[in-house]
Please model this.
Amino acid sequence: MSTPTTTTETRPDSSASGNALTQRRSRPGEVAFRLAMQACLLIAFGVLAALLTWVLVKGWNRLDSRLWTEMPTGLVSRLDGAGVQSALVGTLWIISLVALICLPIGVLSAIYLEEYADNTRWYNRLLELNIQNLAGVPSIIFGILGLGIIARALGLGFTVITAAIVLSLLVLPVVIIATREAIRAVPQSIRHASYALGATKWQTVSRQVLPSAVPGIATGSILALSRAIGEAAPLIVLGAVTFITFNPDGLDSGYTALPIQIYTFITRSQSEYTELAAGAIVLLLAIVLAMNSIAIFVRNRFEKRW
Amino acid sequence: MNPTDTTNRPSVSIAGVGAQPTGTSKPDAADPVMELSGVSVFYGAYEAVRDTSMPIQEKQITAMIGPSGCGKSTILRSLNRMNDLIPGARVSGAVTYHGQDLYAKDVDPIEVRRRIGMVFQKPNPFPKSIYDNVAYGPRVTGMKVSSMDDLVEKALRDAALWDEVKDKLKTSGLALSGGQQQRLCIARTIAVRPEIILMDEPCSALDPIATAKIEDLMSELSNDYTIVIVTHNMQQAARVSHYTAFFTAEVDERQERHGRLVEFSQTGKLFTNPADKRTEDYITGRFG
Amino acid sequence: MSTSTSNAGSAAGSALRRGRRRPVDSTVKVLLVAAALVSVATTIGIVIALVQPTIGFFQQVSVVEFITGTSWTPTFAQKAYGVLPLVAATLTVTGVALTIAVPLGLGSAIYLSEYANPRTRKVLKPIIELLAGVPTVVYGFVALFALNPLLQKWWPTDDGPAFQNLLIAGIAMGIMIVPTIASISEDSMAAVPRSLREGAYALASTKMQVSTRVVVPAAMSGIVAAVVLGISRAVGETMIVTIAGGLTSDRIVLNPLEGAATMTAFIANISSGDIPVGSLDYDSVFAVGALLFLITFALNAVSIRMVRRFREVYE
Model:
């Protein structure tokens, strides 16, 4: 037999509770916890902001037209008149090719997975897992793929097109995953309305689903391209680490790219290169962060709320 | 509450196959344009609706009523093969349209939907202009039209929306009110000149005034179109339809719920003199 | 209303048959499948690229030596192929990175999800996502030229950290991973239903109690997935360790103040030079690559499973 008294013992004193409600208890633990969480945010992003500012200051003297009108050099004596034009042009070449190769393949893959694939089939589930896994494969492994298969086995050599194919495959999962999410966000009712009017599957996809998914696809695509712009590791494996003092003139041309050029500057022990590296980093960051900002803006501004 | 005695009633029209309407609001219709016989719809192994047989009469409004979960929407969606879009959905029995089984192997569901259009529960205009919403169907089905402008105008007039939108055809369909959106969806549907229009609780998301407009529109449209409407609103069925099918949900020995057609007959008869006790209980509000 | 509206007369029944071919639709489907197969081909390509030279490598170096050897000196006259020094350096850097990134990332996520007002959150979330896009070569640069001099200056004793060392690479990597961990953890905390929080508040819980005892446990699989993803990124990260982590690999280095080559740094370093195809050095790149691929593959599998679980629970 349980006694009813056990429950009343723990109950707050009801006769005084009217007053108790108005006495704000101070909870030091609460305050400390809140401050600690806030501090995490401030430290993490404060340090990052400070470091990026430091780069800006460090590279300030190099932030002029020399950066894009002059070529890199391996000679310290000529460093004053050096820039990163060949790297900038190389990056533009590569990224245009990545856009041409990666975006169509990525968007079409996503359409297949979202609209056509029957995901009760094992091969479609495998396809999905494969893409998720590829998204987590280290970029340097893609460099090895490029080295072993694309450059050597396919014989494309250490050229602009090899770099573009490797970086396209690297960021392909980003485009696919973002596009799938954008397609999934288009409500089913729109598809049904289209089918009920006698539209075919492709008509429904191309005229209703894709136009509605454009903001999401654009965001994912820009983020993917900006990631490709910043990648250096696969290109190192592809032997891009040299002072290239000419701009690429075709798909089979030699090349350098901004992140690779920055790495090359860093590996020079002479401190004169540090400033130029910082200047080139500011240029790279300006491009990458501008693209990311556009991507995030597009997503927040144009994404449809259904 | 209901004064009529259920035992002393001529037995008619259960499961409707033999129902011969003696028209009140409309003269006798010709042969049914569609016929369901022994139709069951499955989702995977689950049988959502069992053994449904009923005709759809040409240029009449047929209402499907019943409590939620009774399978009326499921049956409606089997009439133009919208169920194909749900993975695992399967239909047995025969749904015929002018004598052609819609589920025969060589039938193209796109051609089916081209002739049997659908209006949905929630207005779902495309995120495009009003004009493009209406023009979408004719464009995708490759209809030969001499003037798209005329076709759009006519569809919007037929849907009683023209006067409200004629000055803003280029604005988004999503900018309209709920009732206008639903009439836009109806305009969009009739723009492809279907023979039959299926309506899945078209007024459930609308206010009473907008509902009244849609109901008027339905009566108007029944001069030219065969209409099948699912509604949870009995008064609506009584107001607009010529025939009514009453569905209910049954629990079988394995504790699974299945939808079932209880009674099909002319609307006037079903509401004043139902043949089945369950119908009577439902329409008099005694249903569980 | 005209009476001639319906186009589908009684002849309509037969017109329903699949007479009309739809060449566009079938062509499109072929294209879509082809595109989807590109990613399959990529994986197959990676495996082929890794396997063949790796087999060549293990024909000359025993698997046992590779796995248990404590010295990795392919470029020395006295060659040794024990991968442990590379693995140890990778683990050390990853450990340092996680020590920094997990608390900072989680703390940021809790603040954003539970404390920050919606407007702050709306501003901060995109900034975090923006910072996640900073190229890693930038982190390598600041680690070597900004963080390391600071560390040297403030170091209390004389025998300070080396010019390139694992600590500094780990710190930079930690800062790099914070946005990833913060962003994914925040997503999973945001996915915790309101009703769960309200239930706890109704029992007179404080905000800290709700955060630590309700939200964090409920979001745990998402948080674990974020951390595992962070580990995977740290293990596979190349530029920071190549620039700031050092090159020693002839012995196992466990002191983070010394420099040592990680798996990725070895691959990057040796391939920046000219190595003859088919040589043992060339093949060793692929053998290390294969090991790296296997490790990250396992980590990805765990992360994918975790993400799926938290999606299943609340979506």
The radius of gyration of chain A is 27 Å.
